[in-house]
Amino acid sequence: MNTAAFTTQQRELERLLQVQKAAHLAAGPLSAETRIAWLDRLIGLMVDRQDDIIAAANEDFGNRSGVATLLADVFAVIGSLKFARENLRDWMRPESFEAAFPDAVARVEYQPLGVVGILSPWNFPFNLTFAPLAGVVAAGNRAIIKPSEFTPACSELLRDMIAGAFDESEIAVVTGDAGVAAHFATLPFDHILFTGSTSVAKHVARAAAENLVPLTLELGGKSPVIVSESAPIADAAARVMTIKTLNAGQICLAPDYVMLPEGKVEEFSTAAASAVAAMFPTLKDNPDYTSIINQRHYDRLRSYIDDARVKGARIVEINPAGEDFSQQEARRLPPTLVIDAPDDAKIMQDEIFGPLLPVRTYRAVEEAIAYVNARPRPLALYFFGQDEAEERLVLDRTTSGGVTVNDVMSHAFAENMPFGGVGGSGSGAYHGKAGFLAFSHAKSIYRQSKAPEAEYFLRPPYGDAIRQFLASAISR
Length: 476
Hints:
Blueprint: H1 3-27, H2 32-48, H3 50-61, H4 66-92, E1 95-97, E2 105-112, E3 115-119, H5 127-138, E4 142-146, H6 152-165, E5 171-173, H7 178-184, E6 191-195, H8 198-209, E7 215-218, E8 224-227, H9 233-245, E9 257-261, H10 265-279, H11 295-310, E10 314-317, E11 336-339, E12 356-362, H12 365-373, E13 380-384, H13 388-397, E14 402-405, E15 419-420, E16 426-427, E17 429-430, H14 432-438, E18 440-447, H15 452-456, H16 464-473
Parallel strand pairs: 3-4, 3-6, 4-5, 6-7, 8-9, 8-13, 9-12, 11-12, 13-14
Antiparallel strand pairs: 1-2, 2-18, 7-16, 10-11, 15-17
Helix pairs in contact: 1-7, 2-4, 2-5, 3-4, 3-6, 4-5, 4-14, 5-14, 9-10
Keywords: NAD, Oxidoreductase
GO molecular function, one term: aldehyde dehydrogenase (NAD+) activity
InterPro entries: Ald_DH/histidinol_DH, Ald_DH_C, Ald_DH_CS_GLU, Ald_DH_N, Aldehyde_DH_dom, Aldehyde_DH_NAD(P)
């Protein structure tokens, strides 16, 4: 992009932010009715434009399962928006607290922050834009959205959808390359939500710090699966591979590696292959099997396989129809197990974001726990097993953004529970009431008592009464 064009985009971003901040100050807190009306508009967009959403996602990915798009980018979003619509009146109610004096009043009111900036990613372009908007709008805020440049068709559709339903002073979408996103993070928003990689999040955090803009960071990391000796291996393999092949594993919550008891690798590998074959009898031209987003990511994933093989890992490609993938238009990559990759292999160091699955073994569950704890805290952890004491041990001794037991990713669909990371996998949470709280300011308001002692409690000269009070109050 030339300098003049980039400067124009910078100015447009700054103008939009000023427009929305001015509108927020002029209008004051949005009423519950207005918030519900905005959520209704967003729901209407999802319903009315679902075919356009499928087409745009398919164009950007080269092939993207239409049903998967409806499930993840439409159905799930509508659920988030409806949940916020149904509950926001309750969330908005002030909370009362005990006060120091009987006739004093202490309460917390939830005030909109103002204008929230949303930097959304490419893997679920609509879900990871509209689902956060549920909390942003429920809390009474305005929003400016910068979607990913990796999905230009989806980004243009997002801009068209929002512009057709909202005034720019309410919600707006800006498009552009990574330079636009970098400038976006430097602006004095009232809050920024970033969903993406840990490496980019560091740049966003540094830029936002200049204006002390609070952040919600939804990142990822290497989410482990611990399979217990007590787990039915076939069920665990089927559930793991369901999510590892959804969107071709391009999910921040996708299982990143599996830890199996010693002696269970072959059983798991056979069950994984059977599960994939049941879902995808063919892969190469199967409309249900999604492509890798672009050539750079495809080459990155292929390099992980090559690197692991050179370093001694056993590569098990799951290719039910034995198809030749050397000549193809749409960057499809077969699900691949990478068995016993060493720790210095790239696939064991980087978040995979694709249909590759490292498999390792452990002798005792404490060994698996120690392996997880020696690495950055993941966005999710998955435990499969029927031993409740072992499950409790894993839950108590590991830290992750969330956990699903005996399945993969299910906790993210519980709209009434917070969703977010911890440490290297993010900070802050949204979904449901957690989203409302994340994008609200909890303002403490105290109305003082009319009792004389309330007025004179802190005022000199200090006499015997205050000394006697302190003597009795300062105790164990």
